[in-house]
Design a protein that fits this description.
Helix content is 35%, strand content 24%. By secondary structure, it is an alpha/beta fold.
């Protein structure tokens, strides 16, 4: 099922061709908005139903290290849930999440038809309505809070990259783990110790409500708005992978040790495995700042990628 889920419903409409504007100019690859909508629909379904292989392997490894009776039971239930979701084509979780989409858009690609936001929302709408996925988005956060009825709009993060492809990564994220996340504008003087203390205290305060074992994304640097996006994007790295910078790789190991030392354990019942992994990403920042964002994710870490 997971291998065939990308089969388009309208293959006759899946077409790409190159457009030449003026002699000597770089040709553009045209992508129709229908193609984007169809791909997003497939990715939403796959992300909600099929746990990533690296996550499943991480849970299996955690089970080998967990010595708590209740922790072992939780991990066994999670593995059974993964298999049942794939077999029965049912969501991994009752909360099918608010859809976040990371887009890497090649600068040699031209979108025709609807806008990118409209195309993505159409794919989300079809996926959630036609596959009976839970719709969790409300139109106004403070007053009316009326359900939009189709889980739109999606949250879209788009960056322009080289090439003639468009890559999409769909991340359905529920508020159980989002509510356990946090941002701190630390001082440069706080240094590594300040970062470790903030990450550890964030997980200690609300981690048990985010369905542990967790995957913890940490974004360091940038500014007020970029650090959280960096933290969320870091979650897309495979469980068990390490930052290519040795200093940040060692920080990941230290944070994982500190978080697992909290003893929250699988399901919050106590144990050795509170987190499957910690991913840290960084970017340049201002001389007077040290922004640190923690984006907590539940054990499912739902996401799926595809390209056009």
């Amino acid at each position: 099922f997971c291998e065939n889920i990308f089969t388009p419903k309208h293959p006759e409409r899946m077409h790409s061709f190159r457009v030449f504007c003026k002699k000597g100019e770089t040709p553009l690859k045209e992508i129709n908005s229908v193609e984007v909508a169809n791909l997003i629909e497939s990715l939403c379904i796959k992300a909600n139903i099929c746990a990533p292989e690296d996550v499943m392997e991480g849970i299996i490894l955690a089970k080998a290290h967990e010595d708590s009776y209740y922790g072992q039971a939780v991990l066994e239930d999670l593995l059974e849930n993964i298999e049942l979701a794939r077999k029965e084509r049912m969501p991994l979780c009752q909360d099918c999440g608010m859809v976040v989409v990371f887009v890497d858009w090649g600068q040699e690609v031209l979108l025709v038809g609807s806008t990118l936001q409209e195309s993505i929302d159409e794919g989300v709408r079809k996926a959630y309505l036609e596959n009976y996925l839970r719709r969790s988005v409300v139109n106004d956060p403070l007053y009316e809070r009326k359900n939009t009825g189709d889980n739109t709009p999606a949250i879209v993060h788009c960056r322009l990259v080289g090439g003639n492809e468009a890559k999409f990564t769909v991340v359905p994220k529920g508020m159980g783990s989002e509510n356990a996340s946090a941002l701190a504008m630390l001082s440069p003087a706080d240094g590594q110790e300040g970062v470790i203390n903030f990450v550890k205290s964030t997980v200690a305060q609300k981690g048990q409500n985010a369905c542990p074992p967790l995957i913890v994304g940490v974004g360091i640097g940038g500014n007020f708005e970029s650090a959280p996006i960096l933290a969320k994007r870091s979650l897309l790295r495979p469980v068990g992978s390490r930052n290519t910078d040795d200093r940040y790789s060692q920080l990941e190991e230290k944070l994982l040790e500190e978080i697992n030392g909290l003893g929250l354990g699988p399901g919050g019942y106590g144990g050795r495995v509170t987190a499957l992994d910690v991913h840290v990403e960084f970017m340049p920042t201002h001389i007077a700042g040290l922004p640190v964002a923690v984006n907590v994710c539940c054990n499912a870490l739902r996401h799926a990628s595809g390209h056009l």
